[in-house]
User: What shape does this take?
Amino acid sequence: MTASLGTHPLRTLTHAVDPATLSGLGITGAASLLNSGPSGGPLCWLRRGEGLLGFGEISSFASQGPGRFADAEHWWKTLLNDAQVNDAVRMPGTGPLAFGSFAFSKRSTHPSELIVPALVVGFAAGGVWITQLTLDGTAPTAQSALALLRELAASAAARSTPAAPSGGTVRSGALTEEQWKDTVSAGVAAIARGGLEKVVLARDVVASFADPVQRVSILQRLLDLYGECWTYGVRGLVGATPEMLIKVEGTTAAARVLAGTLDREDEPAGSTGYADAVLGGSIKQRQEHDFAVRSLTRQLAPFATDLSFPSEPFILELPNVWHLASDVTAQLASTNGHLPTSLALVEALHPTAAVCGTPRGGAGELIIELEKMDRGPYAGPVGWLDGTGNGEWGLALRGAVLEDAHHVRLYAGAGIVEASDPAAELAETWAKFRPMLQALNLPHHP
Assistant: This one.
């Protein structure tokens, strides 16, 4: 475990930015700041033009193992203990804030991280705010925060948007396609033996480039192509997830559960109702989705006074696939006068059946046995939390890890039930690789 706290208390100042000021700085939206700040671009959490960008790092935390969530929560609360907070906006995501990414498995060697930026720029409901955070003893002011924003805008204006990568190649990662199909067959056989209803099996591929890959160009293309998803960037982890593990605003928690997938390239020209008929009418897909919803609601119930979810899933349409989707909401229960924080709920919920299986203990063991790789942050929680317990945590899906300037490792998985067909599940992984392949300017199915 590594952490930095500093010798001075955390100080934060949040205030709204006048539209005229933004216009004068050339800031037309979140995307206009992607190419600013330190090399590589900001910490990122954006959807439909709203969300948070973080610039610089004043403190960070890293941990591994089964205690990674509790350790991070303890570190964050310690940082908040004597924090001096000046928040004129008072919305979720204002005041003290950290971005985070957690490894999927408690056995992973990949670090689980919280990162506190020097400046946060937030976009919501047509408004913009900035939060300056310090740990060096200086007190943020409206003038100093605005000066930092002015520097970011100037750096963005002085740089050209990086071009998409070109000339890349893709190779298999831990397993070849044939080996992975054998893995799916082994998963089906394990389910047939009893004691396991579903297991989510993932695979990786590695993209290589002669020229350095520009992280900013990846984020920009994901925002352009997948605006309905949450585009995330936490250091080398980037992607656009359609799945919200948990969102906390005050006393309310919400989640979006996805399970059941249909490739949009399979859609017949001019057809209507195709996804409803094929995806919604599939017993296999409905079963997979039901496992995921039951898993999440079962884990969330102890923290809620009221829990609601639809009796029927809806069809979520994305550029690459359709999903069966269910939105779950809950009113959080108070324990000894305290509501659970978003990170506490993350620890309770992860891993859900949507990324692990049912029951999750047995599914998790089978994943380790069959996948032959460390998932790292893939399918782990990614997002942010603030100082009052609010936060948004998605699952790090449709994403990749920038391993160095020339190599990017992509991940994708599929829910395996007894009726699964290995060839069909392999095709589903290529559909789920597609957002990152598009962002990297690579063929959709090499």
About this structure: DSSP finds ten helices and 24 strands in the chain. The mean pLDDT is 92. The chain has two domains: 2-158, 169-439.
